[in-house]
UniProtKB/TrEMBL annotation:
<comment type="similarity">
    <text>Belongs to the ABC transporter superfamily.</text>
</comment>
<keyword id="KW-0067">ATP-binding</keyword>
<feature type="domain" description="ABC transporter">
    <location>
        <begin position="20"/>
        <end position="251"/>
    </location>
</feature>
<dbReference type="GO" id="GO:0016887">
    <property type="term" value="F:ATP hydrolysis activity"/>
</dbReference>
<dbReference type="GO" id="GO:0005524">
    <property type="term" value="F:ATP binding"/>
</dbReference>
<dbReference type="Pfam" id="PF00005">
    <property type="entry name" value="ABC_tran"/>
</dbReference>
<dbReference type="InterPro" id="IPR003593">
    <property type="entry name" value="AAA+_ATPase"/>
</dbReference>
<dbReference type="InterPro" id="IPR027417">
    <property type="entry name" value="P-loop_NTPase"/>
</dbReference>
<dbReference type="InterPro" id="IPR050166">
    <property type="entry name" value="ABC_transporter_ATP-bind"/>
</dbReference>
<dbReference type="InterPro" id="IPR017871">
    <property type="entry name" value="ABC_transporter-like_CS"/>
</dbReference>
<keyword id="KW-0547">Nucleotide-binding</keyword>
<keyword id="KW-0813">Transport</keyword>
<protein>
    <submittedName>
        <fullName>Nitrate/sulfonate/bicarbonate ABC transporter ATP-binding protein</fullName>
    </submittedName>
</protein>
<dbReference type="InterPro" id="IPR003439">
    <property type="entry name" value="ABC_transporter-like_ATP-bd"/>
</dbReference>
Length: 273
């Protein structure tokens, strides 16, 4: 088996202390639904972690709790290597990309990407070079003046990613960001995200239903089980190959897909094959 369980190579800036730690996190909604039960997870700086699991197992709930968009019922979230603000979150260090690009239709691409900086009080003059550079990194420098209605689905998602990156986050949380896109656009955006992850040294937690996408992108897979949601499998994916078109047809990728698929099947109560 080429896909091994040896420790992961991290970005050079990786620290020993985890970036974020979930300790015994449980979440019960007011409806009585137990979305998470005693979920524990450490994510190290520089990791690319994909979160998989059956529908309703609590992936989005876990991501939203990490982002501070929802409370826990019990358990704690800690940021051992960050400075914490009054809300208990690492200041300006987290960005979220949703399945829908959620752009403001009456604003240009430039204005949409400016939004998080504007909310931080950054002047337009200060923000302009940062916005243009960020648009360049997602291949949209020539579309700064365009409106969302003038863009394809893939381009809208690139704007959404640029908006997430413009604040230079340490942690990028992505909740099924490419599920609504066609396969070729999805593969291109997978390559964009991998490039940004490598170039910017960010940490990514990526929710997906796609075994193929998770196996292509991640250096760690976390599989959750449903009712109630908790971690069922957690393993690294290591490859000596560059993750590119060649990797997609390699034996290592096939094995990564098989391992991920078996873990998912097992979490759903099926048998490994
Ligand atoms: N605001 C809410 N109020 C009540 N129940 C909720 C709420 N949000 C989620 N749930 C429930 O919590 C459970 C976990 O939902 P969650 O969306 O986190 O799962 P998921 O794994 O992301 O699902 P999917 O893969 O279908 O997106 C589900 O049973 C869901 O119906």
């Amino acid at each position: 088996m080429i896909v091994s369980d040896t420790p992961l190579p991290m970005h050079s800036e990786s620290k020993k202390r985890p970036l974020v730690t979930l300790s015994g996190v449980s979440k019960t909604f007011s409806s009585g639904t137990v979305a998470l039960s005693n979920m524990s997870l450490n994510v190290e700086a520089g990791e690319f972690v994909s979160l998989l699991g059956p529908s309703g197992c609590g992936k989005s709930t876990a991501l939203r709790i990490i982002a501070g968009l929802g409370d826990t019922t019990s358990g704690s979230i800690d940021w051992p290597s960050s400075r914490i603000n009054a809300k208990g979150l690492p200041d300006g260090d987290i960005s979220f990309v949703f399945q829908e690009p959620t752009l403001l239709p009456w604003q240009t691409v430039f204005a949409n990407v400016y939004l998080p900086l504007r909310l931080q009080g950054v002047s337009k003059a200060q923000a302009t070079p940062i916005i243009l550079e960020t648009l360049e990194t997602v291949g949209l420098k020539d579309f700064a003046k365009a409106y969302p209605r003038e863009l394809s689905g893939g381009m809208k998602m690139r704007v959404s990613i640029a908006r997430a990156l413009v604040t230079k986050p340490k942690l990028l949380l992505m909740d099924e960001p490419f599920a609504a896109l066609d396969e070729i656009t999805r593969q291109k955006l997978n390559d964009d995200v991998l490039r940004l992850w490598k170039d910017k040294g960010i940490t990514v937690i990526f929710v997906t239903h796609s075994v193929f996408e998770a196996a292509y992108l991640s250096n760690r897979i976390v599989v959750m089980k449903a009712r109630p949601g908790r971690v069922d499998a957690d393993f690294p994916l290591i490859t000596s190959l560059n993750r590119d078109a060649h990797y997609r047809t390699s034996e290592e990728y096939r094995q990564a897909c098989e391992k991920t698929s078996n873990a998912l099947l097992s979490a759903m109560g099926g048998e490994e094959h």
